[in-house]
Amino acid sequence: MLFTDSDIVTAADLAQIDSEVVAVAAASKPAITIAGPGSICEQAWRECGRIISAAQQMYTSTLAAIGTSGGHQDAVNYIGGAARNVARTRLNQIVATESQYANSASAVQLWMAYTALTMFYRDASARLGKDRLQDKYDRYKGDADFAWRQLRQVGLPFIGKPLEAPGSKHGINAGTWAAANLSAVAGGGTLRPLLVAVTYYDAAKYVSEANTGNAESGPSVVLAFAQPDASVLRVSIASLNPPTGVMDQVGISQGAWTPLNASHWIVWVGQPGGPLYWQAAVPIATKAYTLAGDPVLAGYTMQQGQNPELNLTFQSIVGRG
């Protein structure tokens, strides 16, 4: 999952680290919102995004290629002009979730979780003055700083040609993905609760689910759908704005990148408590797709999306006037 696809960390992630966080949030006056709009997790995304963007600036007057130092590029290419900072990466080029190991958090996720807990206990303790929550704030501040140092050591998981998820929360003009995208039409299906998500892929690189060519996006938000008896699921993406492979109109001020083209999409369906499975064994290029009957609950399962191509190092430079 790319950094811009969602808030990355959830209330459940925070509760795994600190079992008291939900109770403290509810007991605070007014209550603290952990996840969702205006929440601690959303604020943590903004703060971590700002820190990454600042740390990934190149202090050079030319756009250095990845893997080449800014000093070397300056020596070879400098032809004069105003000094400027150049972003080495955009936030939508960062792979935020763990791509190599199951049941594991990435260095990015772990740092964001501790940052969220720091912000949470900073808020909670400020309402009560000096108390035990201040101690928890101090502890999680130290944990967040340590996790940030670990991330700097590991490097920032990077992909050159990103493909943001359908309805990417922090993407530009991604469109909306909500319950209105799902409906029932008459058919031979049976009454059952379903979970539904969609992913994009670029047909120029995607081959199959066995060989995605690193050209399949992370999933949309997973929606619940109650399929009535004698009906089948219909999925529409008319409210979404799939990436077209064209850069946003910001020049290279925010980094050089070319997004993939979401030429097709995939429907994933499962049942509560289980994985989501690949539906429709043919490419979907239309704005809507209707299942032929009950969903297939076997075969390929939904994955997290693109894997990083390399890990970017962080700059350790002191600017000179």
Please describe the structure with a list of short key phrases separated by commas or semicolons.
alpha+beta; 6 helices; 321 residues; 2 domains; three-stranded antiparallel β-sheet
Helix and strand arrangement:
Blueprint lengths: L10 H7 L3 H7 L12 H16 L1 E3 L10 H8 L7 E3 L19 H20 L5 H23 L1 E3 L23 E5 L5 E10 L21 E5 L3 E6 L27 E7 L5 E9 L3 E3 L19 E3 L9
In short, what is this structure?
With 321 residues, the chain is α+β, with helices and mostly antiparallel strands. The chain contains six helices and eleven strands. It folds into two domains: 149 residues, no CATH class; 112 residues, no CATH class.
Notes on the structure:
The chain is α+β, with helices and mostly antiparallel strands. It has 2 domains: 11-159, no CATH class; 179-290, no CATH class. The protein has helices at residues 11-17, 21-27, 40-55, 70-77, 107-126, 132-154, and strands at 57-59, 85-87, 156-158, 182-186, 192-201, 223-227, 231-236, 264-270, 276-284, 288-290, 310-312. The protein has a 4-stranded antiparallel β-sheet, with no helix packed on it. A 3-stranded antiparallel β-sheet has the order 4-7-10, with no helix packed on it. Strand 8 (264-270) and strand 9 form a beta hairpin. The chain is globular, with a radius of gyration of 22 Å.
